[in-house]
Design goal:
11 helices; four-stranded parallel beta sheet; 286 residues
C-alpha cells in the first residue's frame, strides 16, 4: 500500500506543478479567484489586510510577488494607478488581466466622465469576472480546465441566486434616497435602482473640503435623504458634522473594499450581502 501511495504522489506531481502562480490586487478579486481555483491553489494579494486600494504603494516584497507571477488578475489602472507601471516592468512574463476592462462587463462612468473602478459591486460583473478568471486559468493550466470551469459555474450560480434575493429586498427601497461616504456604490445602486442623493467625498484619495461638507449638509437639509452611510477605513467625524441636528439616520459602516473583511471563498457574496444589509437596516429603520 505504501508503495502505491508513493507512486500516486509521483504521478500527481506534474499536474499540481502546472497550477499557475496567481497574484491579485485586493480582497474582492482575490476572493473570486479563490473560489475559481478551489483546492488547486491560493492566489496572493498585493494589498495587505486593512489596506486601502486607493492608497496602494508598491513595496519590495510585493515587487518580488509580481516577479514570480504567472497570472495577475486586477481591477484595472483606475483603482490602483501605482500598480500599472509596476506590472509592465516587474511582471513581463505574466499574463495580466484587468477584470474591469477585459471581461465584457459593464464599465460605469462618473459624472465628470472618468471611469468608475468599483465594478465588482455589480453582481452581473461578478458573474462575468468569474467566467473570465476560469477561462484564463484554463488557458494557462489546461490539465485542470474542467475544475476551473466547474468551480466558476458554482460561483456564478451562487452570485445569481444572491442577486435575486437582494433585488427582492432592494426593490421596496428604491424611493428612499441616501447619502454615501464616497462615490463608490454606483455599480451597486445602478443595478438595484437605488436613489443616491450625494456623496461626502467625490474623489477616492482625498478628504472632503469644508465647502463640500457645507454642500452635502445643505443637500441633507433640503432633501428627503433618509440615511447617511459611513465607511470602514474613513474618518467618521464627517458623518457627525453632517448629521447633527438633522432628521437623517446614520447607517452601519460599509466594507465593500475589504478593509476589515478577510478574503476567502464565498467572501465576495458576503460583501454584497453586507452592503445590502446596511442599506436595508437603515432605510427600513422605524
Amino acid at each position: 500500500m505504501r508503495c502505491w501511495a508513493i507512486v500516486a504522489l509521483v504521478l500527481a506531481g506534474p499536474a499540481m506543478a502546472d497550477v499557475p502562480k496567481v497574484v491579485t490586487d485586493f480582497g474582492p478579486i482575490q476572493s473570486l479567484v479563490m473560489d475559481v481555483m478551489g483546492d488547486l491553489g491560493t492566489p496572493d494579494a498585493l494589498l495587505p489586510s486593512g489596506g486601502d486600494p486607493h492608497e496602494f504603494q508598491l513595496r519590495p516584497s510585493q515587487a518580488q510577488m509580481l516577479a514570480g507571477a504567472d497570472l495577475v488578475f486586477w481591477d484595472g489602472p483606475e483603482l490602483m494607478p501605482a500598480l500599472a507601471d509596476a506590472l509592465t516592468s516587474l511582471a513581463p512574463q505574466a499574463r495580466v488581466v484587468s477584470l474591469l476592462h477585459d471581461s465584457g462587463g459593464r464599465v460605469r462612468l462618473f459624472a465628470d466622465g472618468g471611469t468608475d473602478p468599483h465594478g465588482w459591486l455589480d453582481p452581473v460583473n461578478g458573474i462575468l469576472w468569474a467566467g473570465k478568471i476560469a477561462e484564463v486559468l484554463a488557458a494557462r493550466d489546461p490539465v485542470h480546465a474542467a475544475v476551473y470551469a466547474d468551480n466558476a459555474r458554482a460561483l456564478q450560480a451562487s452570485i445569481a441566486a444572491l442577486d435575486l434575493q437582494l433585488m427582492a429586498a432592494m426593490t421596496p427601497l428604491q424611493t428612499k434616497p441616501f447619502v454615501v461616504y464616497h462615490d463608490a456604490l454606483g455599480y451597486f445602486t445602478d443595478h438595484y435602482r437605488l436613489d443616491v442623493a450625494g456623496a461626502i467625498e467625490l474623489g477616492d484619495a482625498s478628504g472632503p473640503s469644508a465647502a463640500r461638507l457645507a454642500e452635502i449638509r445643505g443637500l441633507i437639509a433640503g432633501s428627503s435623504a433618509v440615511c447617511v452611510f459611513p465607511e470602514i477605513g474613513r474618518d467618521p467625524k464627517f458623518i457627525a458634522a453632517l448629521t447633527g441636528g438633522e432628521p437623517v439616520r446614520t447607517g452601519q459602516p460599509q466594507d465593500f473594499e475589504f478593509i476589515a473583511m478577510a478574503p476567502g471563498r464565498g467572501q465576495y457574496q458576503a460583501m454584497l450581502q453586507g452592503v445590502a444589509d446596511t442599506i436595508t437596516e437603515c432605510l427600513n429603520r422605524p
